Predict the 3D structure of the following.
Amino acid sequence: MADDQDFEKIYSRTAAFEGFFSDHPDDAGGPTKYGISLRFLGNIGLKDGDADGDGRITAQDVDAVTLQKARELMRKNFWDKPGICRLPDLIAMVTFDFAVNAGSRQAVKITQRAIEACTGLKCKADGLIGPVTIGAACTALDGRKLEICRKAIELRRDFYRGIVSHRPRQRVFLKGWLNRCDSLEQFIEKQAGFEQ
């Protein structure tokens, strides 16, 4: 299973891609800072989403998000809460990075499809991490984790291309999304090399 060190490794890498405040007109998430979007803050509610403490969630809350707050929100909502932390280390890292970018449900579905494709074990792509997904992922501890990670990244690339084919205005983001996938693949291969 993934641990605190695994989270710190992938969080540092993911945070580097998320950058500072942006408000691109074609970004469905709205204003975003350190990977925390206005839409995300609205979805998690006032308790965690009202970063400036004024009793409502607006673009000012996005601007008020600190690096530490972003880290806490990402860990809670994209690592712990969906159970990504219960997956084997490398698989958890790949799933987390995509969860931050596309939501945990979509990221878990992609991982489940990759697990099934690489292990042949039934792993329903329902976006929920339960005993079947964990069991299937854990069978990959014999060195097939990297294969699952590569497949998940390949499926992620296909997901992004699908977005662009259905919503052509999103093409402006495609190069960055694909560069992020390439970088993640290199990162995971390096991590796998450290294990062997």
